[in-house]
């Protein structure tokens, strides 16, 4: 289990779907849910939450990239 998780974290995961345990971990960590809360959450709600967290992460990455490019342009100009 550790090898797939390491590749997910490093960004080298080649498969489309990540292990279900990874999704459980992300939800518990980001939503601050206990195992009992996770188990009590309907599957469709878990899926939406994972999708929303992924969308937020993508947005944050785009903003970070945009800021890095802007800082690079300013350092070259000044």
Helix content: over 70%
The total of helices stands at 4
Low-confidence stretches: none
Question: Main beta sheet: strand number and arrangement?
Answer: none
Mean pLDDT: 90
Helix and strand string, N-terminal first? Answer: HHHH
Radius of gyration: 17 Å
DSSP summary, beta strand count: 0
What is the approximate shape? elongated
Secondary-structure-based class equals mainly alpha
Q: End-to-end distance, in Å?
A: 49 Å
Amount of beta strand? under 5%
Secondary structure: elements and pairs:
Elements lengths: L1 H9 L9 H12 L3 H6 L2 H35 L1
Summarize the structure.
The chain is 79% helix and 0% strand. By secondary structure, it is an all-alpha fold.
Structural summary, described in words:
The chain has 78 residues and is mostly helical. The chain is elongated, with a radius of gyration of 17 Å. It has helices spanning 2-10, 20-31, 35-40, 43-77. The protein contains four helices and no strands. α2 (20-31) packs across α4 (43-77). 1% of the residues are buried.
Keywords:
single chain, 78 residues, mainly alpha, 4 helices, elongated
């Amino acid at each position: 289990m550790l090898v797939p998780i390491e590749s997910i974290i490093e960004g080298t995961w080649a498969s489309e779907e990540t292990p279900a345990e990874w999704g459980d971990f992300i939800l518990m960590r980001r939503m601050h849910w206990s195992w009992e809360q996770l188990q009590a959450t309907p599957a469709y709600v878990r899926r939406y939450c994972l999708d929303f967290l992924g969308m937020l992460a993508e947005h944050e990455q785009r903003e970070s990239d945009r800021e890095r490019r802007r800082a690079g342009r300013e350092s070259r100009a000044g």
